[in-house]
Fold this protein.
Amino acid sequence: MKLRLVASLAMLLAAPVVLAQGYPTKNVSMLVPFAAGGPTDTVARVMAQAMSKPLGQQIIVENKPSAGGILAGEQVAKANPDGYTILIHHIGMATAPTLYRNLRYKPLEDFEYIGLINEVPMTLIARQNFPAKDFKEFLAYIKANKAKVTYANAGVGAASHLCGMLFMSAIQTDFLTVPYKGTGPAMNDLLGGQVDFMCDQTTNTTAQIKSGKVKVYGVTTLTRVPSLKDIPTLNEQGLKGFNVSVWHGLYAPKGTPKPVIDKLVGALQEALKDPTVKTRFNDLGTEPIDLKRATPDALRAFLKSEIDKWGPLIKSAGVYAD
Ligand code: ASP
């Protein structure tokens, strides 16, 4: 009896190693917290394809949109920790704990961390026929029309929402926020002229800016973006210190065996070294993160620093959701 107990304990302890040895033996699901066609989805699809090669199995992208992406976060936090369900998420992982009073997962406790993917600037854009030829006129129009001006975003907790709130606070003028399931569908409405303006990652806006399908009034980082070098920063145009960029990371449910995480980290690193990923990212105004930051420790440490950075700012802006 005692012997059997010892034997089953040994089997239990060996289970993760056995699981990891053959891992992955089937497709891996990568959950995306926003609708298809948006910037998180775009990065997810580039990475899923590039990581599938070194992993030896397909990574299938699954869109699970909800306000600020919290549904996908919750789903992965509660998923079987076997390496077959992973999450791509952005800065929303760091802002959700302050924004949502009833968040049903803990970003710093409920996950295993795989690594960072990229950091990406945002751009302030408007529908093509928006009646302002430059940032000065744009500001004057919003100040004159206030809540008649509509601002597209992906819901409380999304980067587009955060950027809009920071912008609203910087210009001290209210405008009307219109939530979408992601900035992919929001962009469709902006192109159709149903909504006035939006702040979104260059991964979603570069092509539309370059083809002149939207107007652009500034980039949200302190320095200009090389692929859009003629577009001034908001900081340069008078919004001193305005600085927001978005980052993406990969997560697995807490308890995913370390050998499995190691394989995912290996695949992430291989993908980030892949020249096609670099080219695709550069075309979208971003670049693969330094490999030293594509690790579990670097992602967790950065996530913690972002929670510490944005928490007080969000609290002082008084933005909450339940
Ligand atoms: N990244 C976008 C945002 O945070 C949402 C999306 O990817 O669709 O607004």
